[in-house]
Amino acid sequence: MYPDTELFIAGEWTNGTSGVTLPILNPATGGEIGRVAKAGKAEMDRALVAAERAFRQWRKTTARERAKLLHAAADNLKARLEDIAPILTMEQGKPLAEARSELRNADDVIRWFAEEGIRSYGRLIPARRGGVQQMVMKEPIGVVAAFTPWNYPVAQAIRKISAALASGCTVILKAAEEAPASCAAMVRAFADAGFPDGAINLLYGIPAEISEYLIPHPAIRKVSFTGSTSVGKRLASLAGAHMKRVTMELGGHAPYIVCADADLPKAVSMLAEHKFHNAGQVCIAPTRVLVEEPVYDRVLEDFVTAVKAIRIGDGFTGGVDMGPMANARRLDAMDRLIGDAVARGGRLLTGGNRIGNAGFFFEPTVLAEVPKEAAIMNEEPFGPVAVVNRFSSIDEAIDEANRLPVGLAAYAFTRTQRNAQRFADDIEAGMLSINDYGLAYAEVPFNGIKDSGYGSEGGAEALETFQTIKFVSQTNF
Ligand code: NAD
């Protein structure tokens, strides 16, 4: 059974004063499966008051006590994993195995930040005179407004919540209306762990209404958003106008460079696996596959063979590799981007069509030799489509990798150390994985550059985005 979703404010679950709810669709059928409560001004005001009040207590709570509660939340989440995973599949579409893995990843993230919060050290700076102590202290910034999307309804929120709570901040989370129940179940795992009322609040509603009210509000000291670059720029401008600290995790368009000397079977199998994970709705998914001339035909052929073997279906069907896309908007985007690429001379090697007329299924798609002017070469497809183009020199591959205004993830495969170093030195991206798909672990930085945003969502750097620095100089009596 799919549960309806309430808001969580000041330690209480509520449908809000208006009683208005929004529909939730199952992406595998297109049919309505439940409703989510819609927050209005009254709910936002209550959440702001509660989060501000809780902050006064939470910032004084010791790091060890915070860690204990975070571990208790992770324990709850782990114990409920088999109940929450089907909810996630029902509302988002991903195969059940991927839903379970998203929840296991959430457990890992909470525990890592719980421990890292304990090690959030300050500094003593040697003074110029005797009897003087110069201290650098890290303090929690305050109440955080966090906005998270529908592709990983739990995982996107958990990074923000865990790092914020571990560093002593309190949170108002506006999560994705399209997939709200799994995130609400995760918040319940925190609530049941015994966090102070108001330390974590959960809102749903009209996204722009909520962000435009919360961001300028004096109680909010930090804004953290994950979503498209266009919305991110709007929210960052609003935050800038009100001098709020910002973390923006925005779109990408990852290059995936395969040199002629690479371990080709590994490069191809990793590509086939990771490109279609979550039906391609992943900000770090490889999109522009760039293959060195001498091995181009072979790589393309092997990749197409691997893609044709991908099994698509309802996420609850055993053995399914890829579920439907999460919403109808993505289907329309696939039709538009693929149609445009083919019209401009790109070759369609497999896929390219919707599957059936119920739900939001789309075939895993491979395009080849697509010109740079095509929309798909410039706009994040955020779906199960890869473009495979060729390059004839390392310079050319790097130029193409860096051509776009975004710079989130990048991948490169080569056995030559000199090439690997060139990629490490010259690729403009926040994250680069060479001969591997080694990104997004809790302990490593996760961030973009250029139009992909700023501020890390992983590693020790993520805690720092929720902290301010206070310098104290103290002279002995
Ligand atoms: P979108 O930017 O409109 O929405 C993404 C998320 O942001 C949603 O959860 C939405 O509720 C929220 N949002 C939208 N407008 C907002 C506002 N004014 N204030 C606060 N929150 C707001 O994008 P979309 O139509 O859902 O997807 C389009 C594109 O967004 C995708 O193609 C992809 O490029 C990008 N996207 C990126 C991620 C990511 O993980 N970085 C996730 C989802 C979408």
Automatic annotation (TrEMBL):
Residues 13-472 form the Aldehyde dehydrogenase domain. SUPFAM superfamilies: ALDH-like (SSF53720). Transmembrane segments: none annotated. Pfam families: Aldedh. Keywords: Oxidoreductase. The keyword Ribonucleoprotein does not apply. GO terms for molecular function: oxidoreductase activity, acting on the aldehyde or oxo group of donors, NAD or NADP as acceptor. Belongs to the aldehyde dehydrogenase family. This is Aldehyde dehydrogenase family protein. It comes from Rhizobium lusitanum.
